[in-house]
Amino acid sequence: MSAPAPAEYCARLDRVGPRALAGYCYDRNRLSTRFVVELRIDGIPIAWTRADGFVESLAQAALEDGCYGFAFHLSAEMLSGGGQAQIMVANIEVSPARPLSLAVAPADETGRDEGAGHVRWIGQRHIAGWLARPSGMTPEVRVSLDGRLLARAPADRWHHLDDVGGARAVPGFTLHLPLELADGHEKRLVVTDGDGQPLRGSPLRLVAFPDALTDLVSARYGPEPGLAQWRATMFEALLPRSWPLTDPQGWLDRHALAAPAQPPPPLALAIIGTEPEAVERTLQSLDRQDGLNWIAAALPSADRLGFASEDLSVFLDREARQCHALLCVPAGTEFRPNAALRLAAALAATPTARLVYGDIALGDDARAALLGFPSFDYERWLEQGYGALAFLIPIAAARDATRLGAASLFRLANMQFDSRDAPSEAVVHLPGIAARIPSLDLDAATRQLHAATRQHLVARGIAATVQAKRGSVLPAVHVARTPPSAELSVVIPTRDRADLLRNCLDSIRPALRRRGAELVIVDNGSSDPATHALLERVTGEGGRVLVEPGPFNYARLCNRAVAAVRGDLVLFLNNDVVMGGEGWLDELLGRLAEPTTQAAGAVLRWPSGIVQHGGIVCGPNLSATHAFDDRFHGDPGYGDLLRVASEPSAVTGACLLVRRAAYLAVGGMDEAWFPVNFNDVDLCLKLLARGGRVVLTPHLDALHLGSASRGADRRPDQRHRYQRELAALRARWGEVLQTDPGYSPLLALSDDPYTALADAPRTLSARTRRVGAGRPIPAGL
């Protein structure tokens, strides 16, 4: 008796409507057999049905009676999350049809009506949203209460709208409503565009209070309110109180700085510049520092930044010889009451500190921009010198610096960490706007910063080029270090979507060949023949393919790859990332030339041109969120952060370069608690906790399609998993979510970071760049 012919499946899967999938499945060698097919989305079983429906095209082809069809009718939630759909022959791990991307809508589906746009309540008086079809030269949003126009604001930012009509950039807005609404009563607001067309989400219901809930709890329950205070803190973290960036003077008037408990030792003040009017403004502001013992000198300067080191040395050795510390500022700087006192007290209270810096208002009038800074950010300091406009150093350190030729504020500051063993804990950030600094001559400031950064790198023995850039409020340079010679492995997790993977590989292949890098593709059970053909091509060109089937678990795929690669450095790339230009790889690798840098990532943009990832901020909604996704690519961002490299607490795993040894030392990505979301955040925080640095660079061109291969977390099964991962993040890193060292406590923890001021600041206590180890996650979570 001859053996039966092997199965020769013929199958098809299509999306035939907004909520319908249909197709057919049969075996050419057993046409009398009817199969049960299983529908899976991203590897997760969703539904089963019998493939025995009539298909006219099969009947016309004389395939028996043509009854091999099937259909699945799913909820909108099931399909809204995107991802990959595939059918399997039931009880057999065989996928007979090409998988179907649910991110692509059916051809006959019309785009959903976005109306005039969308509005959402962020918390207290703060609302935000976007306009779908703006009219006029300056699109705006209007808010009315009981028929009365309450507020209006321009749509002066951006929103990435990704619908069935394709990705596009639309105007976005953020708006703080008048204080009169903060009376504790619910309000029903009508929100429209400039033409009076209502936005989705309108009428909008909100309630705002005149006082912070934490203050009310303290007043009611005393100085140790316990659980009630914790609940109040959580409430304000989820519905943050904020103040508009457009009203800096109102915020300053609202949040005065308290004097320190103990008066600090005598202080020397170096005023850089000798214009009489500017010097007088600075001295008058010092007169308002009650209890401060100080002596000042104005040093000649052409740009209020550079000076002759001999002039400063003479002042330190003569008039300032009895002083404890040196405070340096440009002429015309006006200190806030108690600000200089606080800086001096912070240095006196930290014997190991080499430098203390404060936040600033930058500009020539009451609308000066308030710049709240992070805790010590070495990379940003090199490329922007952000803390060198209002800082304090021990008098002995100042004397050493002048003897070594420090001749500008930037060099006097960065000389304090010339030493290779200078710990980040030696640089202290004191939150609070310390002073208003006059607007800078950016050309002159860039020249001074360029020279100071180059001198600092030479002193440290770091091979690098320093290129002048253009900032909008602060100077900017680009530090390009010589990439390390360590071997590199590039890891790309994928499942089907050959089109995405092909574009990614085409964009990175030239750089990988020049570097001699290892390419490793981790295939998560692709069934698409086109993907299989592409993976065979990768293998034929010397790359490696690891097969890791099963439900999508990004952390597991990455861990599997790291265990198998040979490189000392590992670059993770999503299959929907496309790199532009020739220098992108050297830029990333150069960031790891610093031995303390454990990971590096890149600013990414959407196809619409809007920033998709500008670093990750820990804290909004007691979670972690991407920054600057309301800015167009090329925008400088808050405090010019999109113009210079910086050190956020985390960067996205879509483009993440890590040291393999460091990755393994912290246990890699957590595939049990963070299989899909927050695994990159958790990894970066673990690296920070062991003393490493995470760097973000904007100095390359990286396009990210943004979950095009996986979809958003909208399906019920995905939402359940997301909520579990969010709970785990809060359990392990709750302290960091409230005190992110890479984000200023003066800025609001709203859904859109860097768009509002915190009302009130979360802390005004001195802080260093330190992240404690995460807590164990409760087993019953």
From TrEMBL:
Domain of life, source organism? Bacteria
Instruction: List, alphabetically, the CDD domains matched.
Output: GT_2_like_c (cd04186)
Q: Where is the Glycosyltransferase 2-like domain?
A: 489-604
The source organism is: Methylobacterium haplocladii
**What SUPFAM superfamilies has UniProt attached to this entry?**
Nucleotide-diphospho-sugar transferases
One Pfam family matching this protein: Glycos_transf_2
Protein name per Swiss-Prot or TrEMBL: Glycosyltransferase 2-like domain-containing protein
Q: Which residues cross the membrane?
A: none
- Residue spans making up a coiled coil are none
